[in-house]
From TrEMBL:
Family to which the UniProt record says this protein belongs: Belongs to the diacylglycerol acyltransferase family.
Places the protein is found: Endoplasmic reticulum membrane
Keywords per UniProt: Acyltransferase, Endoplasmic reticulum, Lipid biosynthesis, Lipid metabolism, Membrane, Transferase, Transmembrane, Transmembrane helix
Pfam families: DAGAT
Gene that specifies this protein: MOGAT2
Membrane topology: Multi-pass membrane protein
This enzyme's EC code(s): 2.3.1.-
Taxonomic lineage from the root: Eukaryota, Metazoa, Chordata, Craniata, Vertebrata
Record's protein name: Acyltransferase
Enzyme class: transferase
Residues spanning the membrane: 15-48
The species this protein was found in: Crocodylus porosus
GO cellular component, one term: endoplasmic reticulum membrane
Amino acid sequence: VWPTMDFMSQQALPVLLWPISCCMILFVGLLFTRLWLVSILYAAWWLLDWDTPHKGGRRNHFIRKSIVWRYMRDYFPVTLVKTADLDPRKNYLVGFHPHGVLVAGAFLNFCTEATGFSKLFPGLTSHLMMLTLWFRVPFFRDYLMNKESASSVLRKPGGGNILVIVVGGAQEALDARPGAFTLLLKNRKGFVRLAIEHGVSLIPAFSFGENELFDQVDNPKGSWLRNVQHRLQKVMGISLPLFHARGVFQYSFGLIPYRRPIFTVGKSILIKKQNPSQEEVNQLHQTYIGELCKLFEEHKAKYNVPKEKHLEFI
């Protein structure tokens, strides 16, 4: 298969890496062409539709099943590993780790059908939470429009929904590099409280290989580069890791990610619905960290992680 797919996959990835830039360029560029009315009409629609992401809406199965995502899956490749059946009558909250630079595992597993989510977990619908910032980007927001607020997903009657939160967020991307297993989790407890308040099972998920896709310019804590990145994150809401990997026709330098396999595995923790105290949130948070560590240790040998490597939490 690969001799016929490899070149197409490589050509698709640069576009996938820069969807935000492409959408902005398209929106602004049309204003200076005979099609300027398209951008004007879209801007009017954009304003009228401004709050739709918080209310839920237009899930597009055609886009989710696009062949583009299958090329992207096969490039790395990406695999969603099923470790247990999930009851489609219930709702679930998945904590996804690590963020990496691309969040490729979370995107392909839960935003598309490239890895066969619906076949592995029939009767369940996945929802990957995104930064509000991305819903302010013209055109790109309409692809993301199937994302809903966390609470609206978890309180849906009848179950059948999986809410996925990349717990470490954009800040964790600054520590994403090959061989790194550092997770920003020590003080991230809001998702735990959310799970308790809605009485949904909490699923720690680890994506082996997620940090192997890019090298990153050294930015140790306290360095001028890390300080600049933190300041930009506070202003812009996103982190800006200085990453690099390979090119299209050469392997020494470029912005195309390395071809490294990604395997996403998870494990469910049952939770009783209640109005939790901070102490109860702290206790479940520690249980979550313990289960995440067990998950990592149980599977790391299978995915070529050295025996001496362990998760580190900050």
